[in-house]
């Protein structure tokens, strides 16, 4: 229906067809059409009525663990109720047809790429559904003695039934390092690819956003898929201005 978008898709399809290795960096926008809100949308975003530093930092959690825990519980319930959309599915089907050719690197914590069947997803910002200790298990003198984090009782506030220590969602908050091996694998994929697709992310959060520039400097073509402008548009060889559940099936068919 959109001639400019159709022309841009036609322009880049040969790049994908001839690329031996493709990397894809995804963000909240790929799950928007499943019904998961993005973070930064001014009206519908998860942070539209809150300050990110209150909800997505260790300091915010320590200041009010109950509030932040309840907010993550709300998001867990929201994501449990949704399904992967046509964009997630097109990616997984491409990977099934072309094993080892496309590496999915996601900033999302919702697990929807995995639910669609994508193998080896590099989840840079953790997992919404896993818990972790905030300060470790209070009883453990050595790691082997630690209470399993599953002993925590989600509640008021979320504490381990045995040792009383606080748990937190196993996601990466601002100021925290990304999982080292996952980030290294993502950087390797960015360096090795011939095409980097940047899909559904505002490109404002580092170090994830830096992967597009790394790929470009290593010689890859960078394709941004997003209905809106992003901080990474200057890195792009092509801008596909459309929603991912429409664009990805046409790009990866
Ligand atoms: C559609 C669509 C449709 C809508 N189809 N698209 C360098 C420069 C400046 C700052 C820093 C820097 N390096 C590090 C920093 C600090 C910080 C940072 O990046 N700050 C900037 C924001 C200024 N980074 C960090 O703190 C990181 N850690 C770190 O650097 O550690 C090293 C270190 C540690 C200690 C000391 C020193 C160094 C950690 C970042 C962790 C980010 N975590 C979050 C929360 C995760 C938990 C949770 O889910 O609650 O991750 S923040 C949040 O943003 C979340 C997302 O993964 C991330 C990215 O957001 P995303 O996905 O782009 O979403 P939106 O909402 O921004 O955009 C949605 C897009 O979709 C929009 O463009 C729409 O148009 C589009 N869209 N519908 C396609 N249908």
Task: Walk me through the structure.
It is found in: Cytoplasm. NAD-dependent lysine deacetylase and desuccinylase that specifically removes acetyl and succinyl groups on target proteins. Modulates the activities of several proteins which are inactive in their acylated form. The structure is a single chain. By secondary structure, this protein is of the alpha/beta class. The chain folds into two domains: 1-36 and 83-125 and 178-253, TPP-binding domain (Rossmann fold), CATH 3.40.50; 42-81 and 128-171, SIR2/SIRT2 'Small Domain'. The chain has helices at residues 3-18, 29-32, 52-55, 58-63, 65-80, 86-97, 112-116, 180-192, 210-217, 244-251, and strands spanning 22-26, 102-106, 122-123, 126-133, 152-153, 159-160, 167-171, 195-199, 221-225, 238-240. Strand 5 and strand 6 form a beta hairpin. The radius of gyration is 19 Å and the shape is elongated. The protein starts with a helix and ends with a helix. Ligand BJW binds next to helix 2. Ligand BJW binds at residues 27-29, 32-33, 38-40, 45, 56, 107, 109, 125, 171-177, 200-202, 204-207, 226-228, 230, 243-244.
């Amino acid at each position: 229906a959109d001639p400019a978008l159709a022309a841009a898709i036609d322009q880049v399809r040969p790049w994908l067809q001839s690329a031996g290795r493709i990397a894809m960096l995804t963000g909240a926008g790929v799950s928007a059409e499943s019904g998961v809100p993005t973070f930064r949308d001014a009206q519908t975003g998860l942070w539209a009525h809150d300050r990110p530093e209150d909800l997505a930092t260790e300091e915010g959690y320590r200041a009010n663990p109950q509030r932040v825990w309840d907010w993550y519980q709300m998001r867990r319930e929201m994501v449990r109720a949704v399904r992967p959309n046509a964009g997630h599915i097109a990616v997984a089907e491409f990977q099934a047809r072309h094993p080892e050719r496309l590496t999915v690197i996601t900033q999302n914590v919702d697990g929807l790429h995995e639910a669609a069947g994508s193998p080896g997803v590099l989840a840079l910002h953790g997992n919404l559904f896993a818990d972790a200790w905030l300060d470790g298990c209070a009883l453990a003198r050595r790691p082997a003695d630690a209470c399993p984090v599953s002993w925590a009782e989600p509640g008021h506030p979320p504490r381990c039934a045995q040792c009383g220590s606080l748990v937190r969602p196993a996601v990466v908050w601002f100021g925290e390092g990304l999982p080292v091996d996952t980030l290294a694998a993502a950087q390797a994929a960015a360096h090795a690819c011939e095409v980097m697709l940047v899909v559904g992310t505002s490109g404002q959060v580092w170090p994830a956003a830096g992967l597009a520039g790394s790929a470009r400097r290593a010689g890859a073509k960078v394709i941004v898929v997003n209905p809106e402008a992003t901080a990474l548009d200057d890195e792009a060889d092509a801008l596909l201005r459309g929603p991912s559940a429409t664009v990805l099936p046409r790009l990866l068919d």
